[in-house]
Design goal:
Layout (H helix, E strand, L loop, with lengths): L2 H4 L13 H11 L1 E7 L4 H11 L5 E8 L5 H8 L4 E3 L8 H13 L5 E4 L8 H6 L4 E5 L11 H7 L4 E8 L9 E8 L6 H24 L3 E4 L2 E4 L2 E2 L5 E2 L2
Parallel strand pairs: 1-2, 1-4, 2-3, 4-5, 7-11
Antiparallel strand pairs: 5-6, 6-7, 8-9, 9-10
Length: 242
């Protein structure tokens, strides 16, 4: 199935007219809450901020949290009047103690969804389990190919004809959770990893908001470790958006 088809509005029941005050109150009440975790520039964060502001995603970003104080994404959050927090991972003696602090801060915001947007930390199984079904990541490869780092160079070295990006639910397996959306880009002769990264980034800024919107609208969910769309299991590669 194509993502565009998946995003088509569904029939709704007729409702009694509401006053302007009631409508405004209802919209405010229905807004979901998102927390975004970053480590760097936050270009995907900006794409999600824009999608929330223009109503494509029916949610508010209630906090942006970084493990690096110099992450430019924190500036993006400040410019958008979003609460921004740095929790420096180097101040903690173990991964588990950092994750426990991170978890406790996130939970104060009671998020419906936690988004990893260039968050360069491997999360503990306890953290992942706590947010199971509410934790989403974007990875620059066509998973299950090339989990981990240096994905574009690995695709070039393997002689692949295409590269891409995957939005997936986070599970205990590194970059191994069920796929929500994928998008591919061609690999041209003489491409460098940087060339591919530029093409892939453009796709990232499109499909991450789309995947988030599907989850916020409760059309996509994680059930029994499978990605489901309208109660039907998605294919292994999710939706193709090219």
């Amino acid at each position: 199935m194509e993502l565009q088809q998946a995003m088509e509005p569904q029939p709704t029941m007729e409702r009694q007219p509401m006053s302007e005050i009631d409508v405004a109150s209802s919209k405010k009440t229905l807004k979901a809450k998102i927390v975004v975790l970053i480590s760097g520039s936050g270009s995907n964060l900006q794409a999600v901020i824009d999608a929330c502001n223009n109503g494509f995603i029916n949610a508010n970003i209630v906090a942006v949290i970084s493990n690096r104080a110099d992450a430019y994404g924190l500036n993006r959050a400040r410019q958008a009047d979003i609460e921004n927090i740095c929790i420096d991972h180097t101040a903690f003696s173990s991964r588990e103690s950092f994750d426990q602090k991170l978890l406790s801060v996130i939970d104060t915001f009671e998020p419906d969804l936690v988004i990893l947007a260039g968050f360069m930390r491997i999360l503990s199984s306890e953290f992942v389990h706590h947010y199971q079904g509410r934790l989403l990541n974007i990875h620059p490869s066509l998973l299950p190919k090339y989990p981990g780092l240096n994905t574009h160079q690995r695709a070039i070295d393997a002689g692949d004809k295409e590269a891409g990006v995957t939005v997936h639910f986070v599970t205990a397996e590194l970059d191994g959770g069920p796929t929500v959306v994928q998008a591919s880009v061609p690999i041209h002769p003489h491409d460098t990893a940087s060339d591919i990264a530029g093409r892939v980034l453009t796709k990232e800024h499109t499909i991450y908001p789309q995947a988030i919107a599907l989850i916020i609208d409760k059309r996509v969910s994680l059930t029994n470790e499978k990605a489901m769309f309208d109660n039907e299991e998605l294919p292994v590669d999710g939706y193709s958006q090219n």
